[in-house]
Design a protein that fits this description.
homodimer, 470 residues, alpha+beta, 6-stranded antiparallel beta sheet, 5-stranded mixed β-barrel, 28 strands, 24% helix
């Protein structure tokens, strides 16, 4: 019986705005070093022996970030399951179970959120073994973190039994008030609901058929109708969208009598707010956590994140200062939960550019950062990965000037192909069919100056695209 | 007897960092609308009848900002007196008096700091008439603002006499503690020392010969040796630098028995800190003052200044958030005086790029903003005023690509001259002698991509320059 990591990467979390955006949610941000939380989640379990191919569930728009993330950590054998729209965790996990069952009737799912931070210790890996064994035996295993403080931002699991690697679940408790949280921490029988699971695919589907039959029906028929390519399963919108929008906690764990909890003692965080993020970072002697460029004077217990501008914090306490290129958030760490209010405000004011698109956009061929916008022009910094090329395309409303500042570019304009190296430039007239490629071994960087009456990303006619984009 | 506005524009104030920089001090920033405090100071007195040519005293590096500022408000008859180095207010005022005396032995100086905000009322202009008359009669007139609250950031003047347009000065009081300030405000005989004056040139020099003879000696011989061009007086470093570094308050007012105070009731601020700046701005219903782009949620009595990124302030009170392109300051308004500590810290850390140069650099021909720096490249947004041109120049270490995004450029490269319009580009090879001009009637904007091994501003060989720069 093989255990398959099932990594849920479809979340769109907004509470880490302005860094997280619709096109680049939290799990794809390098928040704790070079690697993203998604990459760290996959890497963490590389050392577990005998795990099967990872299955990553994500939205279509995230496909390329997932591929890049996997490639960046040398994982080449994963399968990506694309959801036509996000339907919460129960349908995603049920679809994963259905897909794995078709290949391996004995499959065990090790379901992992892609946006949590966990620092494994030896006991963690021992607990995994026990949990996988319990799952094989038909138990619905949820992992519970031994609480270290009366956290009100998490749900709790009450175990029925004092100690042991696997305990029966007595009760799930929603996010508590602080008094109740304190009581639960003191009690010793409660664990933080960490939101990751070990489940036999067959036992899961059988149990869901009882607790949430609509979920199984939609998931099974979606997987049955899926377009399967090497390494990729594309779920069709119909019938997948007919699955109810419901979490696995509600659809399964609160309704089954097979739930058990596997307690873990290692450091864990859902990184669910700037305050939770601050908790996960190393601090200086004044309790300040800095990512990027900051100078603190008379400042304590604060979080500063800024990669472009230098932040100077003078005389502040427990403040979060998070600067993206186009937006700067300043709020007390204790108000970090209310960033969702900010996001609502931005939505109401139709400031979608601040919500949907991160200043740096990642594409399968590399990406770009918009560095300046003027009235009839825009300047972008493009980077193209070695060996990659953009689609063959044209624009109706803009011309483009390209100046190569690093590496080598192969530029096709209509019928002519030219090779440009550092300090060479070319011009793409409005309407010209063109393609940009990096034939070299190092990153290609260029500065693009667009001029024209309309500069939106949707003025693009793709004539040929390796990734099947229209 | 003519009254000449003498505008002191040589200050380097650091307390409005990160907006004010060495190359662009507070008086040249458009802090209250389109015009700078310097421009507003000149404009404010345009309606006073019979004033003579304004005389602006500033450092050599500010010459072009002063010229641009004057041109921007249609003032063409001013004289600029360039100080080789800043020597505080007494030498600057003495030199101005010496220079005016050579043209008009009856000259009266109306000495104005260029970085204060004053909202004149009718009474103000009536007081000016009385002050000028007193100055003609040999009095040393200082203006005093009727205090509205126990401000501890200003010095106070005690008048000897209950009311009247001109009162004898009994005493000058240094910045007080808050209790003393309260007592003085309640007393009614005290005024804020506003730092502007009316002085007969001849009477001033006579009095200074008694109270600060070193100042007069250095100023007189500097003016005697000055290089005088139309509209410009260049003071030589020797002997000007020999003048003691002393303010007019110490050199004159605290030592003379001819001091009188002219009380004014209008709104006045020295804009000496972000807190003082917040005081001068209009507030929304929550007491927030915003310049630029900001969204406030549960935020009160705060100051937000940001022209590039959107600032979102959530749940903060009496906080200053000031974002420049390359630096962001966050501090309580009540700690605004300590911004000078920040500046000291930046100096100690040799972060001169954050102190000396504003992201947007103004030049006599227009200016530029550095929008991106890479390892061997830099991208700038240049703007050239109609009819202006840059020096004929070359670079040893960089090549430049120019893309015109607005207006018309005339580009000379070695012996070839070409005209480029929007969406056209050109290339300046390393070592090529070149010149950029705007022959048109509208602003010329272009994107410059520099590539090379060294991209410092000092890699420039000027072969011809209208402004005499080497």
């Amino acid at each position: 019986m093989t255990v398959y990591p099932v990594i849920l990467a479809g979340g769109r979390g907004t509470r880490l705005w302005p860094l997280s955006r619709s096109d680049k949610p939290k799990q794809f941000l390098p928040m704790h070093g070079e690697h993203s939380l998604f990459q760290r989640t996959v890497e963490r379990h590389k050392k577990v022996e005998g795990l099967g191919r990872p299955l990553v569930v994500c939205g279509e728009a995230d496909r390329f970030q997932v591929d890049d993330g996997l490639a960046g950590i040398g994982v080449t054998d994963a399968t990506v399951m694309l959801e036509p729209q996000s339907r919460n965790t129960a349908p995603a996990i049920a679809a994963a179970a259905e897909a794995l069952l078709r290949e391996d009737p004995e499959a065990v799912l090790f379901v992992l959120p892609s946006d949590h931070l966990l620092t494994p210790d030896d006991a963690y890996f021992a607990t995994l073994d026990a949990a996988f064994a319990a799952a094989r035996a038909g138990k619905m295993v949820t992992f519970g973190v031994v609480p270290t403080h009366p956290e009100t931002g998490y749900g709790y699991i009450k175990a029925n039994g004092a100690a042991g690697p696997i305990l029966p679940v007595e009760q799930f408790v929603e996010k508590p008030a602080v008094d109740e949280a304190g009581r639960m921490v003191a009690d010793g029988a409660y664990y933080w609901n960490a939101g990751f699971f070990a489940l036999s695919a067959r036992a899961l589907i059988e149990e869901l058929e009882r607790t949430a039959p609509d979920v199984v029906r939609a998931a099974a028929s979606a997987v049955g109708a899926a377009q399967v390519r090497p390494g990729c399963i594309v779920l069709p919108a119909d019938p997948y969208a007919r699955a109810p929008d419901i979490s696995i906690d509600y659809a399964l764990f609160e309704r089954t009598d097979k739930a058990v909890v596997a307690p873990i003692t290692c450091r864990w965080s859902d990184v669910g707010s700037w305050s939770a993020y601050w908790d996960t970072l190393e601090k200086d002697g004044d309790g300040n956590a800095v990512r990027g460029k900051a100078i603190t004077v008379d400042t304590r217990d604060s979080l500063i994140v800024s990669h472009r501008a230098d932040v100077v914090a003078l005389g502040v306490d427990r403040l979060a200062i998070v600067a993206a290129d186009d937006a700067i958030l300043v709020c007390p760490l204790d108000r970090a939960q209310d960033v969702k209010t900010v996001v609502e405000t931005l939505k109401a004011r139709r400031r979608n550019e601040l919500l949907d698109v991160s200043p740096t956009v990642t594409r399968p061929w590399g990406g770009y950062t918009s560095i300046m916008s003027g009235q009839r022009f825009q300047v972008k910094h493009l980077f193209v990965l070695p060996g990659k090329r953009l689609s063959l395309q044209k624009h109706h409303h803009r011309a483009e000037h390209w100046v190569v500042v690093r590496g080598t570019a192969e530029v096709t304009v209509d019928d002519a192909v030219q090779t440009l190296s550092e300090n060479q430039s070319t011009y793409i007239p409005l309407g010209a069919v063109h393609r940009l490629a990096n034939p070299g071994r190092i990153l290609l960087e260029l500065i693009e100056v667009q001029t024209g009456s309309y500069l939106g990303e949707d003025d693009i006619v793709r004539l040929e695209d390796e990734w099947g984009r229209g």
